[in-house]
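Supplementary Text 2. Reproducibility record for the structural model of the 331-residue chain.

All settings were left at their defaults, and a single model was retained for analysis rather than an ensemble. We include the record here because the model underlies the residue-level annotations in Supplementary Table 4.
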Amino acid sequence: MIAPIVGIEVLAYKSISRYYDSFPRNTTRRSDLRSNVGEVPLRTHPRRGFTLIELLVVIAIIAVLIGLLLPAVQAAREAARRAGCLNNLKQIGIALHNYHDSRGVLPPGYIYVYGYPTGGFGWATMILPNIEQAALFNAVNFSLPAWSSPNSTACVQKIASYFCPTDYTTQGFLSREGSNYAKSSYVGSFGPNDMDIVPEDRAGLFSRNSQIKFADVTDGLSQTLAVGERTNAVYLTVIGSESHYDLETVWPGAIKENPVDDHAHTTLFQAAYLINSPNFDDRDSMSYHSGGSNYLFADGSVKFIKLSINPTIYQALGSRLGGEVVGSDQY
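Retained model, structure tokens:
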């Protein structure tokens, strides 16, 4: 029985050997394998890319996301700029209170002397030592007018505290009669009346040669405007007197244009009209903040007044002794 079993095993082995021999042999040598190291093998499946429709959908989604995010980014930036403006006004408020504490009165809106042997310098110049600008204050020669040659260097100095971050028009200079004056974003409150008709009107906190005390503010310090915003925007049509096309806002003071007009509006504003009024001109207040402007009140607080405020309420806030009753919910 052993011999037949061995024969069957041999026959099976031969059959399996012939079966495997029927497949093609791999003749690749080790040297061939080493020579192919580093070569990228070919893909056995086709590469799949974006179709045009898929690409357009992705672009549309990105555009929608940008459209949603951009206004939010812009709003956040404007909020930061408005906060910077608010901080500037708070610093000005502190400076005005320090000035009043040391002298017993607020600084004059601007100095005027008939014939201009001196004068022109305004409230923003007077408080320079109180906003850490004592060196600049000491460089001013108050015995001469602001437009004199010895004062030309001081009057062109740019002061960061007098720039609203949103106001992009206040980086240059106002040029008049051969002299330059650094621009500003802030103006003192003259009150609701016309500064050109009666420059010495005392309805507000600041006017020509004014010396207002806090005790004179019978309407209440928290109900009386002290400082507002105004840009140096340039218009396509005449915006004020003397054929002006720009708002002419500077910190040194009231820069005269001729012997008759001492130009109080370069450093003061009258609380008569807002920017959305057809009667707005270069003596009023405005800003580039959306919906309104920041205002410093006599008590040192800063509030945002909307353009939707009732003009009568706005004018009442500009007056220091009108006797008007104004609620905080009215502005």
